[in-house]
Write a structure and sequence with these properties.
The complex is a heterodimer. Chain A is mainly α. Chain A contains 13 helices and no strands. Classes of the chains: A mainly alpha, B alpha/beta. Chains A and B meet through helix 1 and helix 12 of A and helix 1, helix 3, helix 4 and helix 17 of B.
Chain lengths: ~300, ~475
């Protein structure tokens, strides 16, 4: 028995160690180096570096563009996960419980899978391609959005979406929501499908209407999925680099209106040759993401509802 | 809802993972760290010098050339490499044409194992000032003082257009040699102007009058590449430079206090602001990318567009037949302008450099001597309808309308060319100017606010002791 267990651990170690090694070399070591670089004045080119202590962090607090990025990422963090999850839940419910199939009077709509595939489609495109497509949509003169507005007599609402500081960030957020809502629709759908029919049937037998079933039975059972979705979407909202870099004026504009931390990091590292300072931004972003994940996972924690 | 769930799984939970990760971070395992240098290349190869090989390029050491393969392709470089192999008997050339120069070469510069010649061009190029400050570049003085390939009696430096050597100079040392010569101005379609009887304006006053005229025909007078506001900076800063003369440019580049509040700069900002206020800009321009704005201009929806002399090559296949674009110098702000109307903003670009730790720096210099010869430059001009930085390279060639107008502008300007250096020296200041000009053209700031915010950025930069300063 003992030798069996010993062999098991050796097998496990053999399976895990190579992965851990790769993880250490390609994930942990760069992190460690980023922490170290954030305390230096490294230019990205020179072999010589000087330690500058916390100077880079002090500068972060005085950098108007970094502060603008914090504001913008903060707003994205409030809006993108909420809207995406709300839309994802709404669509998933419509697809899974919008029909009147079977005994429960709540069931999938006809052709529900077709909807899922359609909504999931943006997930198959890479983010820069999505950004390019949406840049066409937002084109002030020939774009789909302004064209549609003008076609239905709302020409007064047409504007230069990406050129106006009041709308540019919202335009970016709309793209992020559009591109991720399909994934969460599918995720929530899968979770909904795993809810046993008996539970729903019991609720219906007890006299619960469709809305009550969704609100009191389905939603509570999705709590775990929603929590995880919040973390993923929060990380997405703290990033936003690809869409902003491809789509916005400047990029990051007009005048910092769509500046995000990742963009400032990229610009400082690769355009200004300030890798040390950029590393400090990266470290700040790392802690923000970590804090977000911790808060989200903790805040949503409640007693599990057991089904089996 | 019957039996209790099985005991919780025993694989490591999140907390353990975090703990392990923290331990991993604490380990100062910085071996193979990004900042550590590589093997030492203290001895650079050197061949015998002779009349045919004045720089002493060795035949035994291969030459590694890295070319930015962008709009100009790399055919002109392979042609120069063929000449190199002919002239240095037995030499081999390793040719690489890439796009992301910075990403590909940054690790090699850090490790001190760079190639022998680099065409440091394109959006992803390496920052020149960073390279120079890190002492990663070879001083090109030997090359500039070497006899030119076409005429041994003339040195290489005497075969270049005005400003080319200065463009590659940082702190008194020449680190790069730029192969193309770019002139900035306002572009328009000559047939369109002839058809309407419009005359290119030489003063801002007549520009505004002409814009009123143009607008009546339903064409927007101007458009600009609003997604990248630096395009609109060029006419603004060029008008200011012509009004204020070289002193103004120098004050700006040297980060002098109040430099951005000089009257000619305020006047030029007012001019651009006025253009917007009078509705002379194609609506939506502020959100158009360079390709979108230039396409709208080619479709005849706007009469003028500011751009550098690469525009004609860039619009190949987009400009309709008979569009015949030409470039004019920016109008004079007033009669008191220090520089004549013909003065143009001109600078060389497409930077070639020889890394300090190259294995074969002499070969690198010799390659550049061949590349910057008249025949090579002429081939480049023919292939790319772009002016090379070698004087007289396009003499006798039949040029397209755009390139012809650029050559004429260079001739008309003579010694009256100017260029700002702050864009190369202080990239963050360039960003501040771009942002401010974008806001100016959308009238979200006034000319005075425009000057104020740029001055603040310039002052902050001047105060920052960690930024290496340059003066001219």
């Amino acid at each position: 028995m003992a030798s069996l267990r010993h062999g098991k651990y050796r097998f496990l170690a053999g399976a895990i160690l190579p992965a851990l090694l790769l993880y250490a070399v390609f994930v942990l070591s760069p992190y460690a180096q980023a922490f170290y670089l954030s305390l230096t004045d490294w230019t990205g080119i020179s072999g010589e570096v000087e330690l500058v202590g916390l100077d880079n962090y002090r500068r972060l607090l005085e950098d108007p563009l970094f502060l603008a990025a914090l504001r913008n990422n903060g707003l994205m963090l409030l809006v993108v996960p909420l809207v995406t999850i709300a839309l994802g839940l709404l669509l998933a419910m419509l697809v899974n419980f919008g029909g009147r199939a079977g005994s429960t009077m709540v069931g999938p709509v006809r052709g529900g899978n077709l909807y899922k595939i359609a909504y999931f489609f943006p997930q198959l495109l890479s983010l820069p391609i999505i950004a390019v497509l949406w840049q066409f949509v937002y084109h002030p003169n020939e774009g789909l959005l302004n064209g549609s507005l003008r076609a239905v007599g709302l020409g007064a609402a047409a504007r230069s979406w990406l050129g106006d500081p009041h709308f540019a960030l919202w335009a970016v957020m709309a793209v992020l929501v559009w591109s991720s809502v399909g994934f969460y629709l599918v995720l929530f759908s899968a979770a909904m499908e795993s809810i046993p029919r008996e539970v729903l049937e019991a609720a219906v037998l007890d006299g619960a209407g469709r809305l009550a079933v969704l609100r009191r039975v389905v939603l509570p059972l999705l709590r775990e999925n929603v929590r995880v979705a919040f973390v993923y979407l929060g990380v997405l909202a703290l990033d936003g680099f690809a869409v902003v870099q491809v789509m916005t004026v400047g990029p990051g504009g007009p005048d910092g209106a769509t500046e995000v931390i990742g963009l400032g990091l990229y610009r400082n590292a690769f355009t200004y040759g300030r890798f040390g300072y950029a590393a400090a931004m990266g470290v700040a972003l790392f802690f923000l993401t970590l804090a977000l994940a911790a808060v989200a996972l903790r805040a949503g924690r409640r007693e599990r509802v057991e089904l089996s | 809802m019957t039996s209790p769930p099985p005991p919780a799984r025993r694989h490591p939970d999140r907390r353990t993972l975090l703990r392990v990760a923290a331990a991993g971070l604490a380990v100062p395992a910085l071996g193979g760290c990004v900042t550590s240098g590589g093997d030492d290349r203290s001895t650079a190869a050197r061949g015998e010098t002779s009349g045919d090989n004045p720089l002493g390029a060795p035949a035994s050491t291969p030459l590694e050339v890295v070319i930015f393969s962008g709009g100009y392709g790399d055919g002109y470089a392979t042609a120069a490499e063929a000449t190199y192999r002919q002239r240095i008997a037995g030499a081999t050339v390793d040719h690489k044409a890439i796009q992301k120069v910075g990403e590909a070469l940054q690790p090699r510069f850090v490790a001190d194992t760079p190639p022998d010649v680099v065409d440091n061009t394109g959006a992803g190029r390496l920052d020149l000032v960073t390279l120079a400050n890190g002492r990663k570049l070879t001083d090109l003085t030997d090359l500039l003082d070497a006899p030119s390939l076409d005429d041994p009696a003339r040195r290489v430096r005497d075969t270049l257009l005005p400003g080319v050597v200065a463009d590659g100079t940082l702190d008194g040392k020449v680190y790069t040699l730029n192969f193309t010569y770019t002139v900035w101005g306002l572009w328009y379609s000559k047939p369109l102007f002839d058809r309407h009887g419009w005359r290119y304006p030489s003063t801002w006053e007549s520009m505004l009058a002409l814009c009123d005229e143009i607008k009546k025909t339903g064409v927007a007078p101007w458009t600009y590449q609003g997604k990248y506001p630096e395009y609109l900076n060029d006419p603004l800063l060029a008008m200011a430079a012509k009004a204020g003369g070289p002193d103004l440019v120098r004050a700006v580049d040297n980060l002098q206090p109040g430099a951005w509040k000089q009257q000619p700069l305020l006047d030029a900002a007012t001019a651009i602001h006025e253009l917007a206020a009078r509705g002379h800009l194609l609506p939506g321009s502020e959100a158009l990318s360079h390709t979108e704005a230039q396409a709208a201009w080619c479709q005849g929806r706007a009469a003028f567009i500011p751009c550098g002399s690469w525009l004609e090559a860039e619009q190949k296949g987009i400009a309709p037949a008979g569009f015949d674009m030409v470039m004019g110098a920016v109008p004079a702000l007033g009669a008191a302008d220090r520089l004549p109307f013909g003065a143009v903003q001109a600078a060389s670009s497409e930077s070639f450099l020889v890394p300090a730790k190259a294995r074969n720096p002499r070969g690198g210099l010799e390659f550049l001597r061949i590349l910057f010869s008249k025949g090579s430059a002429r081939r480049f001009a023919e292939l790319n309808s772009t002016l090379p930085s070698v004087a007289g390279a396009t003499d006798g060639l039949t040029l397209s309308s755009g390139l012809g107008s650029v050559r004429d502008a260079v001739r008309a300007a003579g010694e009256n060319t100017f260029t700002y250096r702050f864009r190369t020296w202080y990239a963050p200041l360039a960003k501040a100017v771009d942002d401010a000009t974008g806001e100016l053209a959308t009238r979200r700031v006034t000319p005075a606010q425009w000057a104020d915010r740029i001055q603040r950025a310039a002052d902050a930069l001047a105060r920052d002791s960690t930024v290496t300063k340059f003066t001219r």
